[in-house]
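Notes from hallway chat w/ T.B., transcribed later so I don't forget. T.B. wanted the structure written out for a chain they're using in a teaching module, and asked if we could keep both sequence and structure tokens in one place. Agreed to drop them here.
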Amino acid sequence: MQTKDKIAAAVRQAVTEAMNDGALNFSDALPDVALEVPPKKEFGDFATNFAMQSAKIFRTSPRKIAEEIRSRINSDMFERVEIAGAGFMNFYLRGDVICRQLKKIFDAGKDFGQLPCKNNVTIQIEYVSANPTGLLHVGHGRGAAAGSAIVNIMRAAGYNVESEYYINDAGNQMDKLAASVNARYLELLGQEVTFPEDGYRGVDIVETTRRIIERFGDRYLTTPEDERLKILGKLAYADKLCELQDDLENFGVHFDVWFSEKTLHPDNINAVIAQLREQGHIYEQDGALWLASTKFGDDKDRVVIRANGEATYLAADIAYHKNKFDRGFGQLINIWGADHHGYIARVKAAMTMLGYDASKLKILLLQMVSLYRGGELVKMSKRTGNAISLRELMEEVGTDAARYFFLMRSTDSQLDFDLDLAKSQSNDNPVYYIQYAHARICSIFRQANEAGLAIDGEPNFALMTSEAEIDLINKIFAYPDEIEKSAAEFAPQRIARYVYDLATTFSAFYRDCRILGVEEDLARARLALLKITRHTIANALGLLGVSAPERM
């Protein structure tokens, strides 16, 4: 049991005793005892607002509740328990308790921050899911960084998570891809051709076509057009999917499952439409089939089968989400672009119609990214004249900076990405600042090794009593709680902010606390604390998909 859990248990025990004594009376379920590490040591090692949260339940003042609890806390963990303000409870741990906790963290090594398994329920997280018809752009990059970081954080928090990419490889966009590559194929082989009006005109389509010609030459030049479209469509799809997977791999994004939309056509879609129709949730109008989604919270009914018999994107999405629920996931998390906001109600409506618990489907909306260079908004790629691709962004600022900058802000807020700052090697660049802190700790260990100083036996953590030492210890103590909260809130920005604050706290320690040239036992204790700090920085950066270099 972690120290935080022991404190919460002591508070709950005191509350129970106060209720048994008649000092506190309640008529409802009690809130959880939420504990946090205060920002300053003067407010204790841990604090809780439980008394304030339970005031309505006990129908008495938070201060009186806090006093009743404090008077009944019976634990040798605490040096003292203080009540602050309207009813905050601040807990000051005894020195030996802090030392024991540090010893556990030190012994955990690189595993510090890996929390116990929550349950056997598997959570599926689906993200990016861009059409395999062009290069990923920076908006996809933000979704890729957020999705992969959330997967990492939830796994660290003890959740069983499976990540999935939904390949939109069916429908009109694939026909447009085939037609676009066919036109470029003929054009590059010297034929006169009229490019499709709604075709894909990006430079990447030309590059895909060139790669096809490098492999197969003019083999398909005399092939009947219908057959050539099918062949080139398949070759182009394979090439674009490979490009997409390579870019994601280079961006540190790995999926457990790649799910093809084609597997839903036509049988799965027809089956789910037939089921909804049988249940009375689909009606026919103007030759099309409509989902009666307004009865379940949508603003209007939606077409699922067009008058020409083609399934809409919504029909495929209904079949896809039914497939997800049928695979037995305990929760579904989708990360969508903000422009899909209106899509949420209709998909949830369909799931409710099919008898699933729509509350188990969580949609995270991703706001737009604006790139700035020299203080000016950057709208177009210099190379292609189109939207800037994730590949170009990685080439300009690097994967680490791109991922960290994408993760600094909540996904539901607009992100202004400063390209110049992301490339700078200065303390103003947050990812450089954090990585430099890690590299500096590694440098300290190299210097200690050269001086013959090593961590022998069990460090005497009790020797560290200065403000800078205690601040760093408390910041490390907060790490598991940050993982827990970040996972619960799907908020990787919490970890990005935490590791920056940890680097800042380390910098103050480095300024005030010498390692070499002090009493040997104190030097070893400080080295042990730095080893914990190094592991914590590397661990937190790893959750964000950012590297922790040993030299810079």
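Follow-up for T.B.: Residues 225-250 form the longest helix (26 residues). Might be a good example for the class.
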